[in-house]
TrEMBL record:
This is GTPase Era. Residues 153-155 are annotated as: G5. Monomer. GO terms for cellular component: cytosol; plasma membrane. Pfam families: KH_2, MMR_HSR1. Residues 124-127 are annotated as: G4. Residues 13-20 are annotated as: G1.
Length: 303
């Protein structure tokens, strides 16, 4: 009988390094928000991939940055918590940005937090730079930390991801699988649905508002015809934000709802009826309950 393996892999890096894109590429399904804006990953979303006899569970941590608000501080604490609990750590940097001050700060923290956990360097977005630049960057970063391996990939296009996946499958510990074979994420569908809607809002709104809104799935009803009715509330922090989220004549929220419904239906493989409401909740950024729903600890945000 073939020995099975299973373990957790933490994705660590600066905001926008491509962690969510890599997770979705590895899992083969969209389980983590991917947008052009930094700091869209709030919950520690776990994506589950199968490679041969191994089950690899990815923990997509929030991008590590200098926290200012309570939510920021909780997210950074969650990121390092995800790294501390993992069997393998992947440290992502962007090829075209190189070894930034932020990346150096993360490496300093890796020395403190990684312990004996193997850390692989993953240089992402390799299609944006020339080969000689990549080799020079790899050498430079490897001089700062003892990485177990270095991988050069394009998470968006899939280049190099098979080699990385094979290595991870061999690295995770021997043991029984942690999740059912057909499961791609350990988040409930209610939260995945809320994350999909929040992504569409983030893509649509180009101001500071995306960081001051949250989406909750208030009601989920399974219909007899196999479809699902999903009612969600978009909470904004200020009265002025409500009008922006709704848009002129409700066109913004209508477009967001259509895009979210289409993606959710594709994800679930059946029809979805999505209904969105926008409400002002001025203090949601300071409510412990909101943090718990995002997989964050409210107390971690204490200054």
């Amino acid at each position: 009988m073939t020995e099975t393996r299973a373990g957790f892999v933490a994705l660590i890096g600066e905001p926008n390094a491509g962690k969510s894109t890599l997770l979705n590429q590895m899992v083969g399904a969209k389980v983590s928000i991917v947008t052009h804006k930094v700091q869209t990953t709030r919950a520690r979303i776990r994506g589950i991939a199968i490679e041969g006899n191994a089950q690899v569970v990815f923990v997509d941590t929030p991008g590590i940055f200098r926290p200012r608000r309570r939510l920021d501080r909780s997210m950074v604490k969650a990121a390092w918590g995800g790294a501390a609990d993992a069997d393998v750590i992947l440290f992502l940097i962007e090829a075209h940005r190189g070894l930034t001050d932020g990346a150096r700060a993360i490496i300093d923290n890796l020395r403190e937090h990684a312990g004996k956990t193997p850390v692989a360097l993953v240089i992402n977005k390799i299609d944006r730079v020339k080969a000689e630049v990549l080799l020079e960057l790899s050498q430079k970063v490897n001089e700062t930390f003892q990485f177990a391996r270095t991988f050069m990939i394009s998470a968006e296009k899939g280049y190099g991801c098979n080699d990385l996946m094979e290595w991870l499958a061999a690295e995770v510990p021997a043991g029984p699988w942690l999740y059912p074979e057909d499961q791609v994420a350990d988040l409930p569908m209610r939260m995945i649905a809320a994350e999909i809607t929040r992504e569409k809002l983030t893509l649509r709104l180009h101001e500071e508002i995306p960081y001051q809104l949250t989406v909750e799935t208030e009601r989920w009803e399974e219909k007899k015809d196999g479809s699902a009715r999903v009612d969600q509330i978009v909470y904004v922090a200020r009265p002025g934000h409500k009008g922006i989220v709704l848009g002129k004549g409700g066109e913004t929220i209508k477009a967001v709802g259509q895009a979210a419904r289409a993606e959710l239906a594709e994800f679930m493989g059946r029809p979805v009826h999505l209904f969105l409401q926008v409400k002002v909740r001025e203090n949601w950024l300071d409510e412990a309950e909101r943090y718990n729903e995002m997989g964050l600890d409210f107390r971690d945000g204490d200054a």
